[in-house]
Amino acid sequence: MDTEKAKAPFTDWQVERINKFQESNACHPYTCMDAYCNRSKVPYGGRLIAKNEGLVCPCGKYTQDECNPFMIDYEDDMLE
């Protein structure tokens, strides 16, 4: 398995896969790391949302430009 991080910019296909993984219960999702983000008051509890430019917190104060490759390269039935 590839251990090198997947880096932004992400393709549309990667964005779709990452968001599906983030919304699943496969493991704890990436969440906002900004010290000023009140995750209990932002949409999705501060769960990062994949966009082409990276994973973005709904608070708008934090963006992460990489993720683990298994968040993209997984078998579809793994998330069911």
Question: What topology does this entry show?
Answer:
Elements: E1 6-7, H1 12-23, E2 49-51, E3 54-56, E4 63-64, E5 66-67
Antiparallel strand pairs: 1-5, 2-3, 3-4
Structural summary, described in words:
The protein is of the alpha+beta class and 80 residues long. The chain has one domain (6-74). The chain has one helix and five strands. It starts with 5 loop residues before the first strand and ends in a 13-residue tail after the last strand. The relative contact order is 0.28. The mean pLDDT is 90.
| Number of E-state strands | 5
What structural category arises from helix and sheet content? Answer: alpha+beta
> What order do the helices and strands follow?
EHEEEE
Tell me the number of helical segments per DSSP (H or I, 4 or more residues long).
1
How many structural units, i.e. domains?
Answer: 1
Strand content: 15-25%
* Apparent shape: globular
Low-pLDDT segments, ≥5 res: none
**How many angstroms separate the termini?**
21 Å
